[in-house]
């Protein structure tokens, strides 16, 4: 198919998308939506723009299948990217410069404008080859993933539009893989962003006394660090994968009495705060973690309070009864086997399925009991998401399109075996 569609045009479309500055906190969502709608038009896909919150468009595209009664395929991606520190990049992060080795430098080149465009390029090829899907294929390009997805994926997953789509499987982002095997994720950790606050009597900087805010906070920090070490040790010993333990990292400290020259030195402050990014695997006992926070990390007996904010999700993956559930990767989940076969057919290799160590919008679909697979086809690539000099090699990008061509073909033509359908009727 490459000879019909020159690689340079494919790369140039990817560059155009990368050049739209959709960095938080002021993403150019309108520009990105217009670009995507124009692409959709050139592919004769049906399109609509959903705006659950003004100024935050979600572009929804559809390639209708021949049997719309079958559950549909959702090819999901987010349009926003994380901020950059311009001066720390070797090439401007929104120029999409290609170096002599073919590396495309841009914020979003891995996370995850690559995937969004690869879906579209794969569809361009399938359409050119005369392929017709059986299942409906949807593509959504959503805002705000990097700030929690509340005005994007969360509202979308709750909407009537989404219910009417009758989605059977969601594909969302994964991670680059430094080896030749693609990474693939069947679950993810949930973000809990915890702020703990200590209060205590202020005092002279020279006085030794108990229960100062600083002392109270530090007792907590020591306890948190012990827990962190216990989790990290399991990973270091090879007993657990990164996505299988609870991670907790201190991300801010806020305390002290400001003065025009810095901080007052001879005064012990009456308040002190610390923030932690916690990631909770689907298998974790969340009640016990909450108890740990309330009783050991921020106990009222030490004059402490805590806030988990809007990010705490108690049931990262649940079944229809609200019980924690780990999605299956075996034969009971046909999508996983189909993906593996499709990737092999296109000349790729898949590694062992893992739990995504960070978080993605897929959790909003998983929480509704839908299977979601995290997959970004980038092998032989350093993991650079959220890093300086994020880049992706153009040859690897093109290979990814082959993968999606094969996957979309397999997924959208999959029809459950008739014998299974009839056994359903017998029940
Ligand atoms: C807290 S929502 C998720 C944002 C981002 N994907 C992360 O894992 O940090
Ligand atoms: Zn990200
Ligand atoms: Zn992402």
TrEMBL record:
<dbReference type="Pfam" id="PF01546">
    <property type="entry name" value="Peptidase_M20"/>
</dbReference>
<dbReference type="GO" id="GO:0004046">
    <property type="term" value="F:aminoacylase activity"/>
</dbReference>
<keyword id="KW-0378">Hydrolase</keyword>
<dbReference type="InterPro" id="IPR002933">
    <property type="entry name" value="Peptidase_M20"/>
</dbReference>
<keyword id="KW-0732">Signal</keyword>
<feature type="binding site">
    <location>
        <position position="386"/>
    </location>
    <ligand>
        <name>Zn(2+) 2</name>
    </ligand>
</feature>
<keyword id="KW-0862">Zinc</keyword>
<protein>
    <recommendedName>
        <fullName>N-acyl-aliphatic-L-amino acid amidohydrolase</fullName>
        <ecNumber>3.5.1.14</ecNumber>
    </recommendedName>
</protein>
<feature type="active site">
    <location>
        <position position="80"/>
    </location>
</feature>
<dbReference type="GO" id="GO:0005737">
    <property type="term" value="C:cytoplasm"/>
</dbReference>
<feature type="binding site">
    <location>
        <position position="173"/>
    </location>
    <ligand>
        <name>Zn(2+) 1</name>
    </ligand>
</feature>
<feature type="domain" description="Peptidase M20 dimerisation">
    <location>
        <begin position="188"/>
        <end position="296"/>
    </location>
</feature>
<dbReference type="InterPro" id="IPR001261">
    <property type="entry name" value="ArgE/DapE_CS"/>
</dbReference>
<dbReference type="Pfam" id="PF07687">
    <property type="entry name" value="M20_dimer"/>
</dbReference>
<feature type="binding site">
    <location>
        <position position="111"/>
    </location>
    <ligand>
        <name>Zn(2+) 2</name>
    </ligand>
</feature>
<dbReference type="InterPro" id="IPR052083">
    <property type="entry name" value="Aminoacylase-1_M20A"/>
</dbReference>
<feature type="binding site">
    <location>
        <position position="111"/>
    </location>
    <ligand>
        <name>Zn(2+) 1</name>
    </ligand>
</feature>
<comment type="similarity">
    <text>Belongs to the peptidase M20A family.</text>
</comment>
<keyword id="KW-0963">Cytoplasm</keyword>
<dbReference type="GO" id="GO:0046872">
    <property type="term" value="F:metal ion binding"/>
</dbReference>
<dbReference type="InterPro" id="IPR010159">
    <property type="entry name" value="N-acyl_aa_amidohydrolase"/>
</dbReference>
<feature type="active site" description="Proton acceptor">
    <location>
        <position position="145"/>
    </location>
</feature>
<dbReference type="GO" id="GO:0006520">
    <property type="term" value="P:amino acid metabolic process"/>
</dbReference>
<feature type="binding site">
    <location>
        <position position="146"/>
    </location>
    <ligand>
        <name>Zn(2+) 2</name>
    </ligand>
</feature>
<keyword id="KW-0479">Metal-binding</keyword>
<dbReference type="InterPro" id="IPR011650">
    <property type="entry name" value="Peptidase_M20_dimer"/>
</dbReference>
<dbReference type="InterPro" id="IPR036264">
    <property type="entry name" value="Bact_exopeptidase_dim_dom"/>
</dbReference>
<feature type="binding site">
    <location>
        <position position="78"/>
    </location>
    <ligand>
        <name>Zn(2+) 1</name>
    </ligand>
</feature>
């Amino acid at each position: 198919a490459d000879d019909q569609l020159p690689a340079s045009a494919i790369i140039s479309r990817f560059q155009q998308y990368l050049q739209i500055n959709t960095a938080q906190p002021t993403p150019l969502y309108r520009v990105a939506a217009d670009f995507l709608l124009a692409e959709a038009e050139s592919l004769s896909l049906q399109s609509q723009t959903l705006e659950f919150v003004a100024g935050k468009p979600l572009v929804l595209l559809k390639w209708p299948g021949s049997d719309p009664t079958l559950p549909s395929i959702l090819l999901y991606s987010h349009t926003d990217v994380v901020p950059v520190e311009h001066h720390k990049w070797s090439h401007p992060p929104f120029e999409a410069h290609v170096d002599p080795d073919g590396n495309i430098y841009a914020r979003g080149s891995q996370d995850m404008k690559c995937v969004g465009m690869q879906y579209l390029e794969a569809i361009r090829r399938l359409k050119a080859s005369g392929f017709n899907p059986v299942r409906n294929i949807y593509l959504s390009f959503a805002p705000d993933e990097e700030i929690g997805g509340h005005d994007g994926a969360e509202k979308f997953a709750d909407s009537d539009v989404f219910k009417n789509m009758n989605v059977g499987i969601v594909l969302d982002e994964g991670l680059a893989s430094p080896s030749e095997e693609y990474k693939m994720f069947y679950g993810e950790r949930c973000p809990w962003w915890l702020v703990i606050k200590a209060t205590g009597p202020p005092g002279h900087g020279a006085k030794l006394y108990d229960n100062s805010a600083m002392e109270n906070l530090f007792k907590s920090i020591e306890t948190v660090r012990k827990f962190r070490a216990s989790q990290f040790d399991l990973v270091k010993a090879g007993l657990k994968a990164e996505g299988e333990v609870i991670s907790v990292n201190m991300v801010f400290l806020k305390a002290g009495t400001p003065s025009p020259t810095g901080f007052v030195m001879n005064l012990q402050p009456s308040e002190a705060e610390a923030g932690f990014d916690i990631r909770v695997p689907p298998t974790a006992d969340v009640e016990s973690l909450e108890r740990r926070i309330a009783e050991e990390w921020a106990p009222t007996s030490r004059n402490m309070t805590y806030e988990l904010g809007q990010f705490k999700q108690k049931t990262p993956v649940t079944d229809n009864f609200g019980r924690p559930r780990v999605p299956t990767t075996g034969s009971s989940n046909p999508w996983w086997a189909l993906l593996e076969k499709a990737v092999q057919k296109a000349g790729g290799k898949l590694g062992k399925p893992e739990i995504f160590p960070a978080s993605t919008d897929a959790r909003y679909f998983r929480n509704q009991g839908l299977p979601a697979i995290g997959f970004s086809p980038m092998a032989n690539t350093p993991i650079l998401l959220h890093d300086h000099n994020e880049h992706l090699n153009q040859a690897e990008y093109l290979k990814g399109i082959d993968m999606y061509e094969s996957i979309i073909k397999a997924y959208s033509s999959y029809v459950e075996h008739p014998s299974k359908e009839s056994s359903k009727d017998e029940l």
